[in-house]
């Protein structure tokens, strides 16, 4: 991890760094993490780290066990199913608003992301593909213009990414899922909004079912 300089508050910077480490799977599910270790690695005092841990605990990314320590969250199949259902609700709502408010911008971004996803698949670059997959879905939220939706979505998206990157969930390179991405992009570009929404619902439902099975 890189040492930090002042721009945002230090606690915000620490929170961003630790969130990224969790989402990208460098901190494992259920792993204990130490305030002192994080403070030393980032070159800050323990105070902003403690504040950051409180933020992340509020978002459900960390869990503090009294007289034991602070741990990265983990998820049972049932908890993952709840995450998937909430993710689906937020993404469909985000897509609806994006189609109403910024259809052209959304179509443009989905096309760019799909091109990069195709390239990652050709190179068998699973880590890059997963980052792009997350960005693809977050585009529904970004273009909605709804800040509250984004605040609700981000920790859920991070949890799902963490589970994938910890190899708890398999099949990120699924051909069927990739074809869904390409078809959704085309439907958005062609302004076939109801069909795009239906396919996103089906896509996320299939994702949730497959991943619950892989966690069981």
Question: Which features does this protein show?
Answer:
71% helix; 216 residues; 3-stranded antiparallel β-sheet; mainly alpha
SSE topology sketch:
Blueprint: H1 10-23, E1 32-33, H2 35-42, H3 46-58, E2 62-65, E3 69-72, H4 77-101, H5 103-122, H6 126-142, H7 147-165, H8 175-189, H9 193-215
Antiparallel strand pairs: 1-3, 2-3
Helix pairs in contact: 1-3, 1-7, 2-3, 4-6, 4-7, 4-9, 5-6, 5-8, 6-7, 8-9
Characterization of this structure:
The protein is mainly alpha-helical. Helices cover 71% and strands 5% of the residues. It has 9 helices and 3 strands; from the N terminus they run αβααββαααααα. The longest helix has 25 residues.
Question: How is this structure best summarized?
Answer:
This protein has helices spanning 10-23, 35-42, 46-58, 77-101, 103-122, 126-142, 147-165, 175-189, 193-215, and strands at residues 32-33, 62-65, 69-72. By secondary structure, the protein is mostly helical.
**CA-based shape:** elongated
**H/E order of the elements?**
HEHHEEHHHHHH
Tell me the radius of gyration: 18 Å
Distance between the termini: 33 Å
Number of helices: 9
Weakly predicted, low-confidence segments: none
